[in-house]
Design a protein that fits this description.
8-stranded mixed β-sheet, alpha/beta, 4-stranded antiparallel β-sheet, 14% strand, homodimer, Aspartate Aminotransferase, domain 1, Aspartate Aminotransferase, domain 2
Chain lengths: 402, 402
């Protein structure tokens, strides 16, 4: 038998390539490398005692349900808590507008399967979240990136692109946005742009996927309204517990129009039947005890301090040259460094590894790989010591490269 | 805006229908109905104390890893335990041949996405597991059911079908089998048929998906070898912790050729990044403490007693008429009742609900809905009291209908 199995593969599977970025990330995992490359929460912040207490309470009170299969749309105690939690954030939804998912990556996969045929158009920011691009690419769409500005996606270009497509009788299947502290760039979509985009969606009969993993991690300033609060007929919002609590539970939720939620539940049945019930009950217990909002407050404070430190170190150690700049995110996990166009951060990466510091090569976040002079830095995971030392190493590397 | 969103849906999503069977199952959930319809483990068997102990140990020893993101292929401590566990069952695999999944339903979804384009042929038993049909149908294949016999799928018909297809230049993408205590029929594929099927696969260059949720729940008799132990180049085997421990963790694993596992890991990245790490660490801890094999022994004993009771009650209360028969499974969770062809169990279902007893209508398990005179009965979930009373009600109903 041939050891090459590709003759059995579907066209979609043939199109799926191993993520180069994940291969690069493996290089950053060596213990002596200071890595700003991951997107991990700070494990020192995990509220281990609260988890232990909640897990114990669940096994005491709800073992028969919490260890059994659950409803595909999520177990009732969690959904009830989520409705209240969303309500407190100005997102008034009812049960028919909400489903639990196996973290927001599953949400990206489900919306891709719900909407995308090969060749369909998806609009998104450029750069944008790699995991979304991976989910989208599993159905071979045309992903069109629209440049980001300091206040989010360039809505003039977005509108122009939609009109161009309309002239070719093409309606994008959806606009994908990470409005708050965007991954990778850290920028936040302004309120006026949010309203423009919702109007564009109405005008051109489009849907919007709003991905909100970092929204609750705001360090300062006022939060613009969630897109779903501006239009609940055209917006599906994805949420995750990975950044506000911990990723190891693999839990998230989607809010949106009941007709879409119903169809997504049907799709989810064939994908994994239901999300982990044990974890859902633990999360419900943590909400009920008021732990989640306390935890969010703790994380905000810790990450704000790390962001401040990283900004301070960048200010002190990055070369003062035209074309060298970085974003100042008001929240989230990431900031984005741009270098003069002659610098290729992909080529620089090997030298960075030799100098024992790592970042994510910015190119990976562009649907078409179009820009090569940027990098993403994560400030949530590294210790303050590592931020100090790592940014010094990075500054030296970049100074030498210029 | 139109409230019908179907204009946005992909062709695959348009083809996915709400499961009628799940709608029927909702009817069976009323508290006064004795239901043999579900496929749930007995919650009374969940080893709550062991779970509490293991969760505590994980939070004590591994919190930083167990609450964080994990590798897509599964966390090392669990994969190490699974390799040993599979080795003890005569399935010698290495790390490259094994990945953790979010329970075996995800395995069915991943293999469907890996192999199936619309119109591709899948061969399987008729009847077969509904969840597999749902996963397959999400990519719109042609699913061809081959009749089951008391010792599993009819290999003469299977071979004939493969030859017919070959004459049309069509190679099935895979053969899907539940070799042990098949869901829904409870029958086990004999060793000689296993060898025939593996030979057929070699002859016609086919792959086999072996789904083994019940294999460890053997009450008596000797287990035929797993298909993967007969051929490790053409067989992908799916495993789940749902039936040997509990479903609420949503954990399973796949063993198979390294080239296929590698590709499945890449697909899984875009689907959910990784399976719940907290749960993986707890499962690893339970394996390490020897709890899993003890738990399997406890479940075997409990389910054997329930199966014996159900068989005894069927013997006492079912009409003695030609065409009335049922299977005598040597393990698993289900048995299968066949009635004379003039009886339509779908039509009988409403009367059953009125008589406060429920089953799954057999038709749902046929890829083409071809047989209408059978039903699936589950004996793992109901109490012994309910089995006594429920089978009496069912016998009365069937006697009246004949």
């Amino acid at each position: 038998m041939q050891s090459d199995y590709s003759r059995y593969f579907s066209h979609n599977a043939l199109g799926v390539k191993k993520s180069q970025i994940r291969e690069l990330l493996k290089l950053t995992a060596k213990p002596d490398i200071i890595s700003f490359a991951g997107g991990l929460p700070d494990p020192g912040m995990f509220p281990v005692d609260w988890i232990r207490e909640a897990a114990g309470a669940v096994l005491e009170k709800h073992a028969a349900s919490a260890l059994q299969y659950g409803k595909t749309e999520g177990v009732d105690p969690l959904r009830d808590q989520l409705l209240k939690y969303l309500g407190r954030q100005g997102i008034p939804v009812n049960r028919e507008q909400l489903m639990v998912i196996t973290a927001s990556q599953q949400g990206l996969d489900l919306v891709t399967r719900l909407f995308i045929d090969p060749g369909d158009v998806i609009l998104c920011g450029a750069p944008t979240y790699i995991g979304a691009l991976q989910a989208f690419n599993s159905q071979r769409p045309r992903v069109m990136g629209i440049d980001l500005e300091d206040d989010g996606i360039d809505t003039v270009r977005l509108a122009a692109r939609i009109r161009e497509l309309a002239a070719q009788n093409t309606r994008p299947k959806f606009i994908y946005l990470v409005p708050d502290f965007q991954n990778p760039a850290g920028v936040t979509l302004s309120e006026s742009k949010r309203r423009e985009i919702v109007d564009l969606a109405e005008e051109h009969d489009l849907l919007i996927i709003e991905d909100t993993p970092y929204r609750q991690l705001r360090f300062e300033g006022e939060a613009p309204p969630p897109l779903i609060s501006l239009n609940n007929r055209r917006v599906l919002s994805l949420f995750t517990c990975s950044k506000i609590l911990l990723p190891g539970f693999r839990l998230g939720w989607i809010a949106g129009p009941p007709q879409l939620i119903e169809k997504l539940v049907t799709l989810k049945q064939s994908v994994d039947l239901c999300s982990p019930t044990f974890n859902q009950f633990i999360l419900a217990e943590l909400f009920e005890k008021g732990r989640i909002e306390k935890q969010i407050e703790r994380i905000r404070q810790a990450y704000r301090e790390k962001r401040d430190l990283m900004l301070e170190m960048l200010q002190a150690h990055m070369p003062r040259e035209k074309g060298v700049s970085w974003t100042r995110p008001e929240g989230g996990l990431f900031l984005w460094v741009s270098l003069p166009e002659r610098v290729n951060t992909g080529e620089l990466f090997q030298q960075a590894i030799e100098k024992k510091v790592a970042y994510v090569v910015g190119e990976a976040f562009y649907p078409g790989g179009e820009k090569k002079n940027s990098m993403r830095l994560n400030f949530s995971f590294p210790t303050t010591e590592d931020i100090r030392e790592g940014i010094q190493r990075l500054g030296r590397l970049i100074r030498e490269s210029l």
